[in-house]
Write a structure and sequence with these properties.
Blueprint (H helix, E strand, L loop, with lengths): L4 E3 L2 E4 L4 E6 L6 E7 L6 E7 L2 E4 L7 E6 L4 E6 L8 E12 L2 E11 L3 E6 L1
Parallel strand pairs: 2-11
Antiparallel strand pairs: 1-3, 3-8, 4-5, 4-9, 5-6, 7-8, 9-10, 9-11
């Protein structure tokens, strides 16, 4: 069982920043960061598929997803954090997408264990 390994979570005040990292020990063209916020469904907040980055509306302009292929590492740079960004963040690889809408990510074959991000107001 392949396990991705996240790091970089923590607690910050609103307006602060964090960078999440994830070791991805598989060759893949699709990776993502998911967020599971309290009382909400898990959602993909940032994806990178064949080099194309996409973001959910709530994080556009604040989060940046990137990868270092040589280091097999996926990153999520998060700036201007808001309390609504609080949640457990999971990195994922080999994404599953809706057949009728390949830009909509529904899951993944490989997951990390999650890292907690808490943003206080």
């Amino acid at each position: 069982q392949v396990q991705l390994q996240e790091s970089g979570g923590g607690s910050v005040q609103a307006g602060g920043f964090l960078r999440l990292s994830c070791i991805v020990p598989v060759d893949t063209l699709s990776m993502a960061w998911f967020r599971h916020a309290p009382g909400k469904d898990r959602e993909a907040v940032a994806t990178i598929i064949r080099g194309v980055q996409r973001y959910t509306d709530s994080v556009k302009g604040r989060f940046t997803i990137s990868q270092d292929e040589a280091q097999h590492t996926l990153y999520l740079q998060m700036t201007n954090l808001e309390p609504e960004d609080t949640g457990t963040y999971y990195c994922a690889a080999d994404l599953l997408r809706e057949p009728g809408d390949p830009t909509k990510v529904t899951g993944a074959d490989y997951w990390g264990q999650g890292t907690q991000v808490t943003v206080s107001s």
